[in-house]
Amino acid sequence: MVTSDITYGQYVQILHEELIPAMGCTEPIAIAYAAAKARSVLGTVPDCLIIEVSGNIIKNVKSVVVPHTGGLRGISSAAAAGVIAGDAARELEVISQVSDAQIEAIRQYLQLAAIEVRHAETPYVFDIMITARHGNETSFVRIVEHHTNIVSVRKNDVVLFEKEIIAKTNGLTDRSCLNIADVIEFANSVNLSDVQDVLERQIEYNMAIAEDGLNNPYGANIGKTLLKNHPGDLSYKMRAYAAAASDARMNGCEKPVIINSGSGNQGITTSVPVIVYAKEKGISEEQLLRGLCVSNLVTAHLKTGIGRLSAYCGAVSAGCGAAAGIAYLQGGGYDMIAHTVVNALAMDSGIVCDGAKASCAAKISSAIDAGLLGLEMYQGGNQFYGGDGLVKKGVENTIATIGKLAQDGMGETDKEIIRLMME
């Protein structure tokens, strides 16, 4: 693949769009971003907030700690943090710089302001609408489809910004160009200067939060448990570091991560095992960066048919991506990587997403384990065949089938998960 190819440019752009920093779980941070924007448009701190969100936003914000709030959780806390301490210009790092005085002010605001949270009737899985009011003045901000995609801004009855809601893309590069064969060709031929900055930042940020998760007590300590009970085992070390990063991120760690497909946990899962493997095996930085091209783009490819939010756990896709990246570092070509992805999808598809919280770390460990087992199967001459459950002949057909399962087939499952979580 040459740099002048249209596909080459698209793949570079996808990596730059996907691998962006976020402070904290991305759904509460998106709420904080919308709230900070609403306050900015209003021109003062609102005394009333009406927060209308889709069910999947409720699911992913309910149980996770909002960073820089002193341990607060939930939708109201995320919005309050955005109002009091948010800098909307920083987008998903909107509350990355919060003083102790502002943390106390967030708590006071939650006590004094009238904050109402509503489950919105909306056709969009990802939908955040915030109305801010102070006296007779109001502002309104709406984010749809992905975490920074503001589609509407109003002050009082004046429309300041409005754009059409386009399902799935909304200003992002069309992901339909992604396929396993081209991802491998891109990784082999990419001029690393085109992607080096975003990939090196991913290594730096995601390994830093993994180390923090191993060195401190966060959540259920999944990463520390894995590392303690399986010393010297590289497969467990890869799982442990990724799980530890999630342990920290889900439970209030104030370090940023580089996300993938809108998710910090997916960004962690698709990158940390590949980085740990490369360091343990003495693989060159150049090859590591090429392997991360594979893992990140495979994850984005798998997530395209599923969507940003779903009843289908995103760690499964990212675990497949990580295994694909490791297969690439082992010298694997199309056959090894394609079979690894299919084998892993055959094992773990169907793990449900019941929101962001401590147990995400354990699901990440399971997803990476399935990816590694899928790779080991191929190396041993074993595979799942078309007709085995949801497996179809050909990796792209299998990926498409899993996308339909997650987006269409699990729609009612998603509704029931949300209903059960809200009881």
Summarize the structure.
The chain has 423 residues and is an alpha+beta fold.
CATH architecture of the largest domain: Orthogonal Bundle
CATH top-level class of the largest domain: Mainly Alpha
**CATH topology value of the largest domain:** 2-methylcitrate dehydratase PrpD
* Overall number of domains: 2
Give the radius of gyration: 21 Å
Which structural class is indicated by helix and strand composition?
Answer: alpha+beta
Strand composition percent:
5-15%
Low-confidence runs:
none
**How widely separated are the two ends?**
52 Å
- The neighbouring-strand order within the major sheet is 3-2-4-5-6-7
Number of helices: 16
How much helicity do the residues have? Answer: 55-70%
User: Would you report the number of β strands?
Assistant: 8
Mean pLDDT: 93
How is the main sheet built?
6 strands, mixed
Topology as a string of helices (H) and strands (E): HEHEHHHEEEEEHHHHEHHHHHHH
Shape: globular
What can you tell me about this protein's structure?
With 423 residues, the chain is α+β, with helices and mostly antiparallel strands. The protein has 2 domains: 25-162, D-3-phosphoglycerate dehydrogenase, domain 3 (60s Ribosomal Protein L30, Chain: A), CATH 3.30.1330.90; 178-422, Orthogonal Bundle (2-methylcitrate dehydratase PrpD), CATH 1.10.4100. 55% of the residues lie in helices and 11% in strands. It has 16 helices and 8 strands. The protein has helices at residues 6-18, 26-42, 55-61, 75-85, 100-112, 180-189, 196-215, 222-229, 234-250, 264-281, 285-306, 314-329, 334-348, 360-379, 395-409, 411-422; strands spanning 21-23, 48-53, 114-119, 127-134, 137-144, 150-155, 158-162, 256-258. The strands form 2 sheets. A 6-stranded mixed β-sheet has the order 3-2-4-5-6-7. Strands 1-8 form a two-stranded antiparallel sheet. A hairpin with a 5-residue loop joins strand 5 and strand 6 (150-155). Helix 7 crosses helix 9 (234-250) and helix 13 (334-348) crosses helix 14 (360-379). The N and C termini lie far apart (52 Å). The mean pLDDT is 93.
